[in-house]
Task: inverse folding
């Protein structure tokens, strides 16, 4: 009997150890923010947003598929964005995807659009 109890104790101890490992490793990344620079996507978004503001172009990026969306923007903001800020279509964000490479590129484009749109929405509201 003691062998079964010892086995259960080790099982739970291992389980707790693994959970603690994941908690500790995730804490190191929770609030880390990358400092933008010209080589990171965040740096590119920053540069593009600043350039657009300098040109007084407050339009947000929209997808060009059958259903137009503004990545990173809530649906209840759609009318405000379209009427006040304006929209511009991001190239190659249609509905048709023919390869895994196109899928990866679209995901990168959508991620870029989300960050850009969030930054530009703040600027558009404050203009």
Result:
């Amino acid at each position: 009997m003691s062998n079964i109890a010892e086995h259960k104790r080790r099982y739970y101890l291992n389980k707790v150890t693994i959970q603690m490992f994941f908690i500790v490793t995730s804490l190191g990344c929770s609030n880390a923010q990358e400092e933008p620079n010209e080589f990171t996507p965040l740096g590119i978004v920053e540069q593009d947003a600043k350039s657009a503001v300098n040109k007084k172009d407050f339009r947000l990026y929209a997808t060009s598929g059958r259903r137009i969306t503004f990545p990173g923007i809530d649906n209840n903001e759609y009318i405000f964005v379209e009427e006040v800020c304006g929209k511009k279509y991001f190239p190659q964000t249609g509905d048709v995807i023919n390869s895994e490479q196109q899928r990866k590129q679209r995901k990168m484009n959508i991620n870029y659009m989300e960050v850009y749109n969030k930054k530009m929405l703040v600027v558009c509201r404050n203009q």
